[in-house]
Design goal:
200 residues; mainly beta; 6-stranded mixed β-sheet; 3-stranded antiparallel β-sheet; 13 strands; elongated
Amino acid sequence: MKIQPGVGYNFDSSSHGFTLDTSDPFPSVAVAPTTHPFKIVNVALRTSGGATTVTYQVQSGTLNNLVPLIDDYASGTTVKLDRTTAGVANPPTAELVTASYDATTKTCYITLRAGPKTASPYTYPDDDDTTNQYPVIVPGNVAPVSPDTDVWGFLVIGTITVDSITTPTTFTVNQNVSGSLWADRIKLAGITARYYYARI
């Protein structure tokens, strides 16, 4: 009797006998979770002292090759997104408080803020991470549709919307930015500075 390979199986024969292999010859490729710079991740509800807040993390990314800062609620300090400290969450975890949300839409705008050096040579963004001009991720209760100033440029990287500002039980995350960025600042006399961004 002769057995030939067929649809859904393979056949192997030798002097020791024969075998049928019925495993899938074209297994599905495992799909890894999609991640990218500035992705808002690990959004969760946190209850402490009877109050519930939303915590979140942002994947490390760069603005003009600078890694932005973010508030780390555990330490109460501002740290870089790429912080690596043994035993501490990486990336850092930030927390949204009641004032972080728009009262009507219940939306918080996770915003990248950066400004130029305040002294010559006035480069943008400021590369001194001890100044207010250095790139930082901040939560905001208003959409910076066009709030750019000579001091700072703003870009919403995503939003977090909750069902209740005071006692959130559910949330929705929307992502606007999907990569590291390069930005340009153009300032002309008498005109508010303009900021332009490109994904890299």
